[in-house]
Give the backbone structure.
Amino acid sequence: MPMNIAIDGPVGAGKSSIADRVAKRLGILHLDTGAMYRAFGLYALRSGLDPQDEAAMTALIEQADVKAVLEDGEQRTLLFGEDVSGLIRTAEVSAAASAVSKWPAVRSSMVRAQQEMARQADMLIDGRDIGTRVLADSPCKIFLTASAEERARRRYEQQVAKGDMTPYEQVLADLNARDHQDMTRKTEPLRQAEDAVLLDSTNMTIDEVVDAIAAIAEDIYGKQ
């Protein structure tokens, strides 16, 4: 059975960057599921459709061609064969991804694709329903979080570094709104799996978080 590690957590918890480093430490692949939802969100925007329209998104997912290709240990997210990895990290696409991800048909389609990939190889997957649905049978589940204020501070600093001067107060308000939407949606809301290890990184460095998750995985699966 492949080594499958699930990492869930709210927006701004650093799941993707942490998962990258843990996967490299363990010598396994990292699948960023959020990137797949972002790619579909981008497709919805390009199609001129409202991501909040369930009927439109249910029809659109049947047409969508979203793939996550793993090349040399790095993920490339493809939309109809186009590498959109560098186009899906904007605030607009992030909001669209959050909206489309609440629709059952969209989630079912994405989950099937993710589970198929996980059956083929050792893999670390991060997202918002990995431990509760995608890798529900995995013995290694982490719920990574931090205070809303700390997550907003990290996101604010990232955005400033990119030239985005959105005030911290607005970043925090947007993050709280995203948390509420993710945790209250009817389909697979964000929650900690019963058997997941809770890891609060509010007062931890990135290296400390990576060390902690790698240690948990090694305790379960043994050192590689």
Notes: The CA atoms of residues 17 and 206 lie 9 Å apart.
